[in-house]
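Running log. JK asked me to keep both predictions on one page so they can be read side by side. First protein, sequence followed by its tokens:
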Amino acid sequence: MLDLPETPAPEARDPAQTAALHREILDRLGPAPIAEDQLIRDLSRAARHVTPAITQLEMQGRVRRQAGGLLALDPGA
């Protein structure tokens, strides 16, 4: 049995805060891809908050990840 360190629980976020962050991300993205790290810098937010939000938007089919860590709006969304 592996003895792994405890993983801290994700920070609880208010649904309104999550929705606001999703809106900020979607407002910054367009059909032309941008680098994920550039998006995080543009938002002036911690990566630990932005990255899970991007993943949620990907799972909803609203954001598409491209080669090289580039992100764009999903044209079909």
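And the second, directly underneath as requested:
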Amino acid sequence: MEPTPARERTCCIAVCTAQRPIMLRACLASLATQHVAPGWKAEIIVIDNEQVPRVAGIVEEFSRNCPLPVTYVHEPRRGIPFARNRAIETSLERNAEWIAFIDDDEVADADWLGAYLKVATETRADVLHGLTKYNYPPLCRKWGLAKKPGRRRDGDRLVCASTNNVMFRTRLAHRSQGGLRFDTRRALTGGSDTAFFYSATDNGARIIHVADAVVTENVPEERCSYKWRMKRYYRCSASSSSIAIQRKGYVRAALRLLPRFAWNLIESLAITLILPFLLIRAEWFRKYLYKAGRRLACALGILAAYIGKLPTPYERIDDH
């Protein structure tokens, strides 16, 4: 009697996109070369998050020469949480065991999927989070932004993750398991992925770092201006603080956030007072001007969360 062949495990790779056709092409091209380990099958799902479909032609052209199955899905409700939830629903319809997310402005290393599938085969973890490398233009390096390799080690346990480079078990999204979804109230403010994975770990999910699952993002020059960077610190602080309030309540969150608010504000003011004395060295002046602005932006972000006035950076999408 012939042995019954082992059932293949399925992983869906989701790319949510809006107004970035050039970057999307590069992202998809990097996915076409991924190696799928024996015993696994993979499918690429592209979620077009525009009221009027824009990238159907790009996806159709890509699918003709891609060795992996490719599915195009239109999600007209504007906002990344809607697109991510649509990707989850599509993966559940296909009975996928895992779903991976990569941002449309990133490219995956050749072994990206292979690294994830290897760990998924060997571990009982619920969420796998990879490494993101950033290529900065000269303007960003002027501010000292060229990020050093992360301190996380392969296999480190994490308390949270983000969807720019992640893979997780779809059982987290099954209605029978609590049915986790991305918070659509954060469509314009951001932070829905942070809230999602905090909810997962609050309910016992295990997240580990996969150092070999690498994606690369080429940072546009417009994201390196002082103004843009400070706005980013402000909105990230506001978003993370609002999530802390949502999880812990105003009083418990204040025990952590108010000391942080005070420290950031005091440090910003102290650095500002010494800035005139640093004009003798342009490098020193830039470094501490940036640090003072960052501290102030973080303090104001905490304040914004407490008064309920979150910034809405995703009303406009940059890049191309």
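Observation for JK regarding the second prediction: The mean pLDDT is 93.
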